[in-house]
Each structure stands twice: as structure tokens, then as C-alpha cells.
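pls ignore typos typing on phone
UGB + seq
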Amino acid sequence: MASPPDTSKSIKLERYNSYLRRIHSTKLLNASSKLLFRVTLLIALVLILFFTINYPPLSDTPHHVPTHYHSFLSTNFFTSSSAIGGAAWEKQVRHSATPRRQNGMSVLVTGAAGFIGAHCSLALKKRGDGVLGLDNFNSYYDPSLKRSRQDLLVKHQIFIVEGDLNDGPLLTKLYDVVTFTHILHLAAQAGVRYAMQNPQSYVASNIAGFVNLLEVAKVANPQPAIVWASSSSVYGLNTDVPFSESHRTDHPASLYAATKKAGEEIAHTYNHIYGLSLTGLRFFTVYGPWGRPDMAYYFFTKAILQGKTIDVYQTQDEKEVARDFTYIDDVVKGCLGALDTAEKSTGSGGKKRGPAQLRTYNLGNTSPVPVGGLVSILESLLNIKAKKHVIKMPLNGDVPFTHANVSLAYRDFGYKPTTDLLTGLRKFVKWYVGYYEIQPRIKKENGVNTSNPKISA
Ligand SMILES: O=C(O)[C@H]1O[C@H](OP(=O)(O)OP(=O)(O)OC[C@H]2O[C@@H](n3ccc(=O)[nH]c3=O)[C@H](O)[C@@H]2O)[C@H](O)[C@@H](O)[C@H]1O
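k done
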């Protein structure tokens, strides 16, 4: 009989093989679960990234501008202040916007850290109206000047929200917190000549930004009355003098002027369709303390003090170029007059309920001065002879002259400019040398001293 086969070896082998299979399958399982874990992690990260980019939380970021506007906005736009949307922030917003007098207004001032915006904000606050500022603090000119204006406003309990006109959710949020009775819309891309360098910034602020503001205002309940900054530049190459509101404005000389003119047409549309009360103010070369460094009177002062040459423009036929320079305090009175006489908007729920007020006014000085005259006044106030380089005006959007007829503004809200160029520039120079801590060779008899002057609004 054959001996039975020795199975012990094959059983051992089988057990060993099964052990190896188990180890192998466990390893496989481990490897596949690791892979699964990594893939899940990656998907989660991608999803988080996607939602963060497309739906940024309102409360976490002060600036949430639609991505397609990013290219229009200056890099400085992204400087941040306190987080928007929190309880502390809402408290500041409410406090700033609450009027302190009976029947006072609650005004949203856009461009509040700007030249005219800062002066108007102070004037409104001083008489007991509530003011909330909005400004993007862009770097078109030295933002530290805007910060200094902000410091001044903060001292007067005026809070400026740091944000952009194109930020719809932010504007909506402001309306959720405050029932504004009025908007004084002064935020804009200003400057005639800069439009050749950065045309898109004019479209972004003066057209897209304005439309965005009106879109939010039209659905507000109640709708606010809006007073906003147009410009004397809309008269373009008009030769009828003085410029009256009924004159032609369809031949602008710069893109800046064209965007302001577009603003006037846009205002007409929102008034017509939605019953928004709209008043456009055509400002004529506004100057004064805390002014804009991109304007001629300002950078001429700087250049004269530094002994640098200034370009003084002439027309092509060698005539003097002239401007109806208007002092800031006069313009502030005009802005407040326009706000005081603005009628209520008539729409509600985004629908017009009746005809609403639509107005346009010149706010000028009614007495043009040639640029040469401006330079002579500065020479005399600074007691320094300017190094003048008289050249023909380059084709840069400038117009040869401006001259306002202000009878409409006088009739409707008593607008009457009272400051001549010498008086206004004296106040400007006094502020300038104080602000920049300059000790110029200023004649005492010019009434300019170097003590640090206060804003005169
Ligand atoms: O009323 C307005 O709606 C506009 O006013 C202002 O524009 P303008 O009236 O052009 O003021 P501004 O630049 O100070 O030039 C003053 C004079 O100096 C001449 N000028 C200028 C530069 C130069 O180098 N040389 C020179 O002679 C120049 O030819 C001009 O005659 C605002 O900037 C603008 O934002 C808008 O608000």
C-alpha cells in the first residue's frame, strides 16, 4: 500500500500563500484609501478656492469689486481699514449718518476724502446733518493728502467707509444700515489731461461707478435725492459766453468731459424711468485749501517754491488761456443749496410713481482770469518770480476758456460767489505752507503766515 502523501508541506505552503495574499490586500487597501484621502483633500481645496474667489464674504473684506473691474482700479484701492459689516462697524456708520438737528438730512457723501467732498462733509456736519463718507483712497494723487482730510473728518465725527462705487454689495449694505435721505455724489476720476493716460479709469468711476450708485439708489425705500458733480468741461469748445445751462454740450474736448456729459444723460434716464430726483452741478475749476495736487494752481505753487519752470499755456493763436476759477467755500454753499432745494424722489420698489425733479446748474465764479494772471498772483503771494515757459496749449483735452453764468443757481438757491482769485489764493497759500511746513519768503503784507491753518469750510 502506498504510503499516504505528506500533506503537511502543502498545507504550510497554502497557509504561507494565504498570509502573503492577506498582507498584499491590506497594503492595497491602505494604498487605495490613502489615494482616496488625497483626492478628497484636493477636491475640497479646489472647492474652497473656487468659492473664496467667486463669493467673498461681505463681512471679511472691505473691498469686493467684481473681478472685471479690477483692471480699472488702482492698486491702492486694496488698502484696508476696519472690517466691513460687523456690529462695531455698523455702529460707526449709524452714528456718523445720524442727523443732530431736527429734520436734518442723512447724507451719503461719495468721494468724502476728496477736495470738495471733505469740505462739504464738514459743512453738513457742522450744521447738524448726518454724514457718512465713502472713498476708495486711490492713488491718482498722493493718498496721504486724502488720509489727512480723513483725519480731519474723523475729528468731526465723520466716518469714511473705504470702498469703491463699483462695489454693489457694499453700497447695498450701507443702505441696509442707514436710510439716506440724500446722496452727494462727488467721487469721480477727475482731471482733464490724465484721461489721455488712463482712459479706462474715467469709464470705471464716472460711468460704471455712477450707474452702480443709481442702481442701488433706485431700489432703496425711500429713494434718496441725489446731487452729483458734473463739470464745466461739458461745454467743451462752446464759444457762447458766459456758459449757460441751455448751451450746447455735445462737443466735448476730453474723455473726462465726455464721461461727465454721459453722466448727465444717464441722470436723465434714471430720473425718467425710476423717478429719482437728480441735480447735476457743473463745477468751474474749483480751488482752495486742501485742494487737488493735480491742478495747475497747486502744482504751480509747488514748482515756484522749488524754483522749477512751469508751462503756461497759450491758445494756438497766441491768446491767453483763461479759467473761471471758483473758490471752494462758494462751491460748498452751492452744494448745500442744491441739497436743501432737492425735492424727494418719487419712486418706490424700483418703480416710478410720478414725475421727479431733474436739474443742472453752473457753479462758477463768473469772472474768468487768464492763467498768466493766476501765476502773477502766486508770484506776489509767494514773493518769488516764477520761471515761466510760455507754450501753445498741447492737444490734451484742455479748452481755451471757461466762464459761468450762474443766474439759474442764484434764482433757485441763492448761489452767489463772493471770493475773488487773490483772496482765495491767499487762503490756499496760507494753508499750503502750513500743511507742508514750508517757510517761504512770503511778504507779511500779503496776509499769509506760516501757522498751521484749519480747513475753512
Ligand atoms: O472745471 C472743470 O470742470 C475742471 O476743472 C479743472 O480742470 P482745468 O480747468 O483744466 O484746471 P487745471 O488743470 O487746474 O488748469 C487750469 C488752467 O491752467 C492751464 N494749465 C494747466 C497745466 C499746465 O501745465 N499749464 C497750464 O497753463 C490749463 O490750460 C487751464 O487753463 C479740474 O482739474 C477738472 O477736474 C475739472 O473739474
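Residues 1-13, 23-29, 47-81, 449-457 have pLDDT under 50 and may be disordered. The longest helix spans residues 8-54. more later
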